Amino acid sequence: MSSSFGTIFRVATFGESHGLGVGAVVDGCPPRISLSEADIQQQLDRRRPGQSDLTTPRQEYDEVTILSGVENGRTLGTPIALFVANKDQRTSDYKNLLPVPRPSHADYTYQMKYGVRATGGGGRASARETIGRVAAGAIAAKILKKTYNIEIVAWVSVVGSIEAPELYPGTINHKLVDRTAVRCPDMEAAEKMAEEIRRAKKELDSVGGIISCICRNVPPGLGEPVFDKMEAKLARAMLSIPATKGFEIGSGFAGTRMRGSEHNDPFVLKGDHLGTITNNSGGVQGGISNGEPIFFRVAFKPTSTIGKPQMTADFSGQEVVLEASGRHDPCVVPRAVPIVESMAALVIADLALRQKLNGKAFCRHCLTGGKEIV
Amino acid sequence: MSSSFGTIFRVATFGESHGLGVGAVVDGCPPRISLSEADIQQQLDRRRPGQSDLTTPRQEYDEVTILSGVENGRTLGTPIALFVANKDQRTSDYKNLLPVPRPSHADYTYQMKYGVRATGGGGRASARETIGRVAAGAIAAKILKKTYNIEIVAWVSVVGSIEAPELYPGTINHKLVDRTAVRCPDMEAAEKMAEEIRRAKKELDSVGGIISCICRNVPPGLGEPVFDKMEAKLARAMLSIPATKGFEIGSGFAGTRMRGSEHNDPFVLKGDHLGTITNNSGGVQGGISNGEPIFFRVAFKPTSTIGKPQMTADFSGQEVVLEASGRHDPCVVPRAVPIVESMAALVIADLALRQKLNGKAFCRHCLTGGKEIV
Amino acid sequence: MSSSFGTIFRVATFGESHGLGVGAVVDGCPPRISLSEADIQQQLDRRRPGQSDLTTPRQEYDEVTILSGVENGRTLGTPIALFVANKDQRTSDYKNLLPVPRPSHADYTYQMKYGVRATGGGGRASARETIGRVAAGAIAAKILKKTYNIEIVAWVSVVGSIEAPELYPGTINHKLVDRTAVRCPDMEAAEKMAEEIRRAKKELDSVGGIISCICRNVPPGLGEPVFDKMEAKLARAMLSIPATKGFEIGSGFAGTRMRGSEHNDPFVLKGDHLGTITNNSGGVQGGISNGEPIFFRVAFKPTSTIGKPQMTADFSGQEVVLEASGRHDPCVVPRAVPIVESMAALVIADLALRQKLNGKAFCRHCLTGGKEIV
Amino acid sequence: MSSSFGTIFRVATFGESHGLGVGAVVDGCPPRISLSEADIQQQLDRRRPGQSDLTTPRQEYDEVTILSGVENGRTLGTPIALFVANKDQRTSDYKNLLPVPRPSHADYTYQMKYGVRATGGGGRASARETIGRVAAGAIAAKILKKTYNIEIVAWVSVVGSIEAPELYPGTINHKLVDRTAVRCPDMEAAEKMAEEIRRAKKELDSVGGIISCICRNVPPGLGEPVFDKMEAKLARAMLSIPATKGFEIGSGFAGTRMRGSEHNDPFVLKGDHLGTITNNSGGVQGGISNGEPIFFRVAFKPTSTIGKPQMTADFSGQEVVLEASGRHDPCVVPRAVPIVESMAALVIADLALRQKLNGKAFCRHCLTGGKEIV
Predict the structure, then answer these.
(1) Structural domains present in chain C
(2) How far is the alpha carbon of D174 from chain B, nearest alpha carbon, in Å?
């Protein structure tokens, strides 16, 4: 059941990197939502390999088919099965089983866990697994946009040692992000980042980075107390993406150096509702959205598949030099931007549906001082 | 269902800060485990208020009672209900309902979510809620210690601007951690941290910090692919603790600046099994433990309840100056150490039980090159 | 996790028959519902032993305490913990461990499953376990009554060979049911049933029976397709009650003998909505409520604890004669009536909450021929 | 999430009757199990339409493809996606939306629930939905056979008023069941049943029936206390099959008429373990298997789609005469036999995996009187 995500808006993904294909089943999507393959394809296209010289040269078009749950362009309330055929299937064959576990890959751990592993590429540990997430996330994002006008925008804020200047995240949108292949909205930083990636690529090496994400217009009240806090669900979602090593929300690690009197976000009347002056909380208090933008950052390690020769050991413990010959991304963050957005959409859509169960959701009765309303 | 955690070793917590009490029900604990209240009490005592001048002066003894699931000192395989009575109950009364939502607290968001909130203290958003986690986590830790000799040790590595020197985490144990009230094993840093906390306290302010945690002797193979990766479960667990803002595993955010050739952990024969030379992965690859120590860090913001006057707004939007009069911790990290350990224990115990389902778990057949073994 | 029930309105029970007590935690109860111990106590009183000469003479008052989740008489949206202390605790002691597994009891199977079992009485397999269900079910029933005016009424329709005449179930209510100790609303049949039970009791034997249940005013649309059909959830709920052996809905087993042309329930206009002329479906079609009363029956075997000597074998396989000395019910059905109602309430409350997720629930747009309404 | 079933061995089905296809994803199948499409196809072939003159004349070959989770003929431990294309797709079109809700069908209730419904056939309420269950169930059955030698055999024991003589169920196997198209192992009864079905068919009517099922070699200890009792899980599984109205285990409804002294199953030494002399319990005690055969029966109503004209109302409440023109089964039980077996296999496989979590499962230490063994 580890390939399932969500409580109400529930996604189950399947598929190995070199099998017949990959996909997802979404169980819990509300009925009567207008939906077509085109809604999903646009995010898959942002994720696919071969978009620029910064990514792997492999060309995979990743065309999605909706197998069920949609008729006459609208959802039926029944499970939506999504499928993307693999173009690069291999005849499965033990000859493809790599004798050397790639350092910092999942070859060794899958073998230890299951006593067997997929012969070609990474199997379920491959980045192709994220196709199902992006497809399902596009549906979630559409619902959030239509129902609450929620906008989720992620971008590359760090590549290696190159950091984009702090931007007021209120101005960033998909168009600005997609202006550059590296997906950093600051043109100057983007150019340096691209340079950094090309340099790593030339050296047959790889480089890490950070993706920032903002979710605007999230109504207050989303997120469940205790274990299903908004930030807990987001953290799990982000750390489930391959190659991630860290997550922080609002002030994050830097906030640990602040005093409470600086860090607290004072309330203030904004139009007809309460807002906060600062947003060190990153849009959540006690695990529940407060109406301010949700802001978080995700750390990605440098790609573990590199062309550069590496000293390591094979399964029998013998020292060997490993030289990867496959085509790989020298930096995952440009293509991971839609994955981060998709996982955020899955989290928020699930929590938005759960909040429906509390009755008069998103009401503004707080302004009446908490009087009984039912 | 947001107060439940875990798939197999499943914990449900309950209780408000000023109601009759708090507790937890553990469903899925294996039978025939020796267990008594004393096993649980020792971790609760590390969490309780009033331990030193660095914490709140409130004295709460938090004595646990096992209500079910244990007989003649061993578990029955049935749900274990745990209860800790609140000493500081208040007659519930609307007069206790604060008219001003405390900045960066959950008062506002609970009210927006539910249209009602607990009148005294933080209700479920209070730190008292973590008592159930610590009680359940103590059971998980006992099972892990007995079955796999797993040791989970957390400590305070940063308070405000004071950072403990990088220690080889292999040497840290509970005894070293508990030598100082601040729970930093480095005596010099501990002294400076205590000073920092006392300074904040004197200024009626608060300060944040970072807790580091290491899990030793975790066998390879724990963690489930895709959404239930070890690091994803840990991240969710940690970000569900009140006042947390960040999580990183292994190289974390710093690792984003490294090249793949530096970051990759090469394999090497260690005795009769494969290990890695470095541990930038933090003990996990592809979401599954690789046998190396699991190492992660958690960021805590400065306590939001402060005595210092704060300009903010009440529920009606009127500007007010808020001065908290309650007794509070000027820094949460010393008392959060057992909470971090408990949540880690809950995650690992659950994943260890799940791995039993794969049959010959933890075998070393990988060294035979992946031959079929069943 | 086997002691949990429900998806949204989720109940977890705990407690052994001879430990400190039994209880339940309800996670998922909506906020702002008025609730007190008295709402729960009345159903517990209908379940308790010692009500009449037809039940066990043991007197257990089973007084419930709400430990959390309710303040100032209304629910907070947080987990509601409920506790009933056991009056009849025994010092746990291996001397209480019965050397002979009682025939058709759970002694043998618990021992085989867990390698350990509760020493006194039935542990979790005791009927005391149902206290938690009845307590939680009373909350569910209150919500259903208040929100949808749903009425759930169960009664004894068969005891041994005595069958109540088919009554129009529309006329049966709690008051009529509770007129007699046997809980059969037909006075003549009730008298014969009581006689049958007294006869079995006198012979140190026991007798089985059938409980019928009707749920009125259930709106159409409750029940989820495929695996969470209304009847599937009810069947699981009922077969989870100790001593049950069968479940049937609507026409049930008798319906297998009918032709489709007789069995089908034709639609007809009833006021402003569609209803059906007959109700062989028992209020569900395709697993979803259709607005007609939900009607089902549950078979209970004769109590397995009997005073009459029984030839059987001990754990070592030696033949022995077993004579139970405890006080027991000669027939479980009179006291099982509130248990059946409670389980039905838990099922329907959970499905009613789930239906909120589909948007404009319970609308009557079907009369418009299925036009898009969103 | 209502299209998912099981806790550990978890199946999610998808697909409408007239969309691109139907299928299932199995998440939680152990690794290293030998598996091919042929293992699954044989049960699908027993379920498919057009097998004889007793079923619908529609010819659907229902060829299964394994999309993921299997490589080189063995399972990887990752999700197994299964797909069966629909041969009988229709261009989805509002013209196919029936204006009259078919009596005792799900047309009305789906419309009320979702405000939309599939235009062709029954959508998710169609019997085609069971293809995913049968495919997944075949995998479960294979594991159970290989690991525990568990055999699950279902057969038709009643059609309309024709009842097969009580057979000693120990002698029934798949071969005997499949000797006749009606799937009753008693040749004489089978002939009469076939006659009954042909008569109903000729009269453009339909007829109901009962399927009996036995599960042999189930080890003791399977089934979880309280809500996940073996019989509760089986009841839910069976009542989730379209057209079912009842479930009984062991003595079932007839057992309610017995005295406890007759009904109790005395223990006796059978070889080296305890067994019972009679099996009124149907192989379960307290919800847990006792090592005796599990025996249950499932009631199926007469097919609701009939050719005979029916007086009913359309969605607007207007009286109409409905004459179904489609090709349908006059009796569902012959084709439902593999569905019942599949659902039983899913239940038992899930519970068998869960029992692994209790450590030394299926040991016979009970014979030692319950001494501590760990």
Answers:
(1) 4-358 (3.60.150.10)
(2) 27
